[in-house]
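Hypothesis: this fold can be encoded by more than one sequence.
Test: take the structure tokens below, design a sequence, compare later.
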């Protein structure tokens, strides 16, 4: 192949790099962003028997939110994974609804734990 000629695939890759220079941003999160440390957080899991209500909003540091929910987190550790920064709410809420994602699994785990606690 001549030095100046590129295949269609090579052109597509180069074009993709130009359009999306940060592949990390392009790649969707598999789990909720638990790295945010300060700001507003929202619980996107189901309402629990411990009194945590779906879509509850918390302000402050992640540490203070987790301290506030200490009793719930001891009983249902998956709750921690469904407390997300409000900036990522839309992306994570969609993943909670989509079957096969980790967030959907955590949501369903909490549901089954809550229903199991109801029965027993």
């Amino acid at each position: 192949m001549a030095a100046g000629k590129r295949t269609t695939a090579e052109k597509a890759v180069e074009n993709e790099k130009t359009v999306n220079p940060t592949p990390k941003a392009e790649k969707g999160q598999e789990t909720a962003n638990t790295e945010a440390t300060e700001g507003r957080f929202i619980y996107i899991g189901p309402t629990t028997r411990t009194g945590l209500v779906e879509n509850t909003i918390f302000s402050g540091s992640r540490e203070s939110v987790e301290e506030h929910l200490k009793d719930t987190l001891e009983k249902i550790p998956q709750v921690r994974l469904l407390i997300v920064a409000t900036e990522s709410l839309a992306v994570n809420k969609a993943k909670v609804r989509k079957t096969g994602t980790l967030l959907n699994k955590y949501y369903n785990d909490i549901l089954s734990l809550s229903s199991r606690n109801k029965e027993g």
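The CA atoms of residues 30 and 102 lie 7 Å apart. Helices lie at 8-19, 23-26, 62-68, 70-75, 89-97, 102-119.
Hypothesis status: open.
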